[in-house]
Amino acid sequence: MELKKTNTPICIIGAGGIVADAHLPAYRLAGFPVQGIVNRNRQKAEALAEKFGIQKVYNSLEEMVADNRNDVIYDFALPASEIIPVLQLLPEKAAVLIQKPYGESLAEAKAIHKLANEKLMLAGVNFQMRFAPYILEAKQMISEGQLGTVTDVEVYVNVHTPWNLWDFLFTKERMEINYHSIHYIDTVRSLLGNPEKIFARTFKHPQSMQLASVKSNIIMDYGDMLRAAIHTNHNHDYGYEKQESYIKIEGTQGVIKITFGALIDYPHGVPDKFEFFITEGASAKAWQVKPIEGTWFPHAFMGTMQQMQWAKSGAIIKPENSIDDALMTMACVEAAYVSNQKGGVLIDDFL
């Protein structure tokens, strides 16, 4: 059954780059009404209100809540350290979409989770890559059995990321996995379910010593017959020609390779590309290119908010990106950091 679009008004908390470049453009595309915005820097909120036709700029979150109570979906894009203070100010039974990550650690995520449940909130987390149009197309092909049994999922990112665009990341004890590779962990989970184990190592770089880490290798263990691996390197500063960012999904009867171009030559990006090879049928034994309408930014942000709209209207019990599901992604992230600390097997032990 196809669910209809609903139009619960949205109130935005925060007016940073992700709101300007992804949240608000996505909601305009989807036709979701945004009726209020608040930010500590009122001028930034006013600029976005003028650009996107937002009805009201509030002086404070308390003023926004007093004006809207539970008649809206609160959408906030603030650092993880601000999640609990914001939730404390929102009314009981509020509908809220929380920007990722779901806390700085699993312990913090559990504290957020406890507070949201105590306040009976309808809460989701903005893990949006799983809703990117090319990921949705891949899921459809997998569900139709076009790939056969999935045997291999690989995320490969070799790019140059200008981390100076996000000053707050330089103070984080956890960086690359918690703020970037978390997207891939969540997307792999949405494709394959929860892994049995996590193996991980995250690394620094001599030219980015102020950051906790900028490169990672992560293995999500689904047993002997299915490999799921994530490789990220954000310091490939040698021109964008050899930069790569893709997800490859192999099965017993076919393979999909999705180039997500947003990260290449960032922030300019290059076009996405959806390629597939099916061993049976009319397209057998030949790579095909499938046009996909939309991309990660901003189109995937329609998916996370659409889930909240449906849940708020009662069309579904809870959003796919619920805080319950997000907690499992945070458990995987925590496992990755613990694995990184424990390290590998010492070669000297065998000599």
Compute the gyration radius: what is it? Answer: 21 Å
Count of the domains: 2
* H/E element order: EHEHEHEHEHEHEHEEEEEEEHH
CATH class of the largest domain: Alpha Beta
Under the CATH scheme, which architecture of the largest domain would be assigned?
2-Layer Sandwich
The CA-CA distance between the termini, in Å, is 62 Å
Strand order of the largest sheet: 8-9-10-7-11-12-13-14
Please render the helix and strand layout as text.
Layout: E1 10-13, H1 17-30, E2 34-38, H2 42-52, E3 56-58, H3 61-68, E4 73-76, H4 83-89, E5 95-98, H5 106-118, E6 122-125, H6 133-143, E7 150-158, H7 176-192, E8 197-203, E9 215-221, E10 227-233, E11 244-251, E12 254-259, E13 273-278, E14 287-289, H8 300-313, H9 323-342
Parallel strand pairs: 1-2, 1-4, 2-3, 4-5, 5-6, 7-10
Antiparallel strand pairs: 7-11, 8-9, 9-10, 11-12, 12-13, 13-14
Summarize the structure.
The chain is an alpha/beta fold and 351 residues long. The chain contains nine helices and 14 strands.
Description:
This protein has 351 residues and is of the alpha/beta class. It folds into 2 domains: 10-127, 3-Layer(aba) Sandwich (Rossmann fold); 130-289, 2-Layer Sandwich (Dihydrodipicolinate Reductase, domain 2), CATH 3.30.360. It is built from 9 helices and 14 strands. The chain has helices spanning 17-30, 42-52, 61-68, 83-89, 106-118, 133-143, 176-192, 300-313, 323-342, and strands at 10-13, 34-38, 56-58, 73-76, 95-98, 122-125, 150-158, 197-203, 215-221, 227-233, 244-251, 254-259, 273-278, 287-289. The protein has an 8-stranded mixed β-sheet with strand order 8-9-10-7-11-12-13-14. Strands 3-2-1-4-5-6 form a 6-stranded parallel β-sheet. Helix 1 crosses helix 8, helix 4 runs parallel beside helix 5 and helix 5 (106-118) packs antiparallel against helix 9. The termini are far apart. The model has no long low-confidence stretch (mean pLDDT 96).
